[in-house]
């Protein structure tokens, strides 16, 4: 009589074992390369707190970027216009709307630095779904379903150091969410930023070239600019001017973080419309 017992594993059991096997493998690998979140917490490449941070609603930051402001009115004395009292002074209007996940400080700063310079390029796949709603917001305001997403190119030395163009890779990752279509363009800054004052940085120029630029310009493509961090806004302004000269329509810009954000209690940015 055959007393051998055969153990049968049901599909449900196998499905339950797979996550366990992955976790065992991850824990084993962590003995050699410990998993650590950019904020410093161990045990995961991105901890629950930082994951929650990426679910925040994007905020408008263009009024915090000096280089993006254009003078639209000047008054030497108070005026009454359409029943509204306007004080003496000047009015500025931003060149384009800019949406960011938050301020470039604390955990968000650690995350950006780890992604850009810390070798944690896989974080781009976590940033993409966080930025997709911002791209969609600009697209809806511009009357298009899937705009082209133009990444601000990294300097050649930075690409060589990192091994890839991180903003271009992020644009492709956002494209895979369905929010946009990545459109990397050949762009070269014609003015260096190093050693220049704040006023000089406002005049940054960027030159676009290549067949992709000509095709997008001929189609009057609607585009959204993508960058990692915005400070004065000089780079975004340079890209905006270059894309506009080429014949494209710029709907706005999306960045991971802004050096400054609006202080609570101050007037909000106007709605996108």
From TrEMBL:
This is Amidophosphoribosyltransferase. It comes from the Bacteria. Pfam families: Pribosyltran. InterPro entries: ComF/GntX_DNA_util-trans, PRTase-like, PRTase_dom. Residues 219-260 form the Phosphoribosyltransferase domain. Transmembrane segments: none annotated. SUPFAM superfamilies: PRTase-like. Belongs to the ComF/GntX family.
